[in-house]
Amino acid sequence: MPKSRIRKKADYTPPAAKQTTVIKLTNRAWVAPVMLALFLIGLAWIVVFYVTDGTLPIDALGNWNIVVGFGFIAAGFGVSTQWK
Quick one: which H or E segment has residue 81? Predict the structure, then answer.
């Protein structure tokens, strides 16, 4: 019986390199300072409210000053979502 021909496998050729696209990110250098500023303003608002026994920062708001302070802190967390 005759031998069958041995087929030679083709050498490995890597696939063509994909073209890389440059992703231009916008400049978000303002995010970190604004975020930290909002955190610190909120913290300072609450601390001043407690230290002055509710007479400062705005006497007319009463205990709502705490909500205002936490509002600044929440805004800081909102800004932090823009950080890359």
Answer: none
